[in-house]
Design goal:
about 220 residues, six-stranded parallel beta sheet, five-stranded antiparallel beta sheet, about 35% helix, about 25% strand, elongated
């Protein structure tokens, strides 16, 4: 189980409620905040605390000690002004990690400029992910860590890689990616790969690097001959 951390979720629409549910399932402590009492009441028996409060009220957020939470999600929906104010207040109160939902690209730009640590656009991001997976069907999974860095899991189907060590394959210099995990066909996980570890048929490797470099490597490791 992951280490317990404290989370505040501000704005409990469909996206915010899903965030709360996922955190609770992961055994995390969650404070849910919304201006609508009915929404708060629905979550009262699920999260650690559910509070009725205005996200634009600095005194209310200070009283809830928002600045000391490990992570703060601003998941307010169409009220862009409230989203921006809540983000400003959370950062001014000292919140170290503020993740915001944006309605559109302009909203996202404003949130980034006022200090949001991460901005997501769920519908836009889902569409990009679907298209990416259609264009790269052999890539098992991937996660965008930043604008320049992606983590992806690749299946090794190219016989030229079989029976060779990581040192021999030299992923870092040849393909500009780092191998951080190897999973065997029996689902045995090697979380600390060493230079002398050998790639076997049906292995999957998790790599970190630029998405273009990862796509290039994926094309190579998928070749059957």
């Amino acid at each position: 189980m992951a280490n317990k951390e404290s989370y505040a979720v501000i704005g409990i629409g469909q996206f915010g409620a899903s965030i709360c549910d996922s955190l609770v399932e992961a055994g995390q402590e969650v404070l849910a905040i919304d201006i609508n009492p009915e929404v708060v009441n629905e979550l009262a028996g699920t999260v650690m605390r559910a509070i009725v409060a205005d996200a634009q009220d600095e005194d209310a957020l200070r009283e809830l000690d928002i600045g000391n939470f490990d992570h703060v999600y601003i998941s307010i929906g169409k009220n862009v002004e409230a989203s921006i104010m809540a983000t400003l207040i959370a950062k001014e109160l000292g919140a170290a990690d503020v993740i915001c939902r944006a309605e559109n690209v302009n909203h996202a730009r404003v949130l980034e400029r006022i200090g949001a640590d991460m901005v997501v656009r769920p519908e836009h991001d889902l569409a990009k992910r679907l298209i990416f997976q259609q264009l790269n069907p052999s890539m098992v999974d991937y996660v965008t860590l930043s604008k320049e860095t992606t983590l992806a899991e690749l299946s090794i189907n190219n016989p030229k890689f079989f029976g060779k060590t990581l040192e021999e394959l030299d992923f870092r210099n040849r393909y500009r990616v780092n191998v951080i995990i190897i999973v065997s066909k029996d689902d045995e996980v090697n979380q600390v790969p060493q230079a002398n570890d050998v790639i076997q048929p049906q292995d999957k490797i998790t790599v970190v690097g630029n998405i273009n470099d990862i796509q290039h490597l994926n094309d190579i490791v998928q070749k059957q001959k």
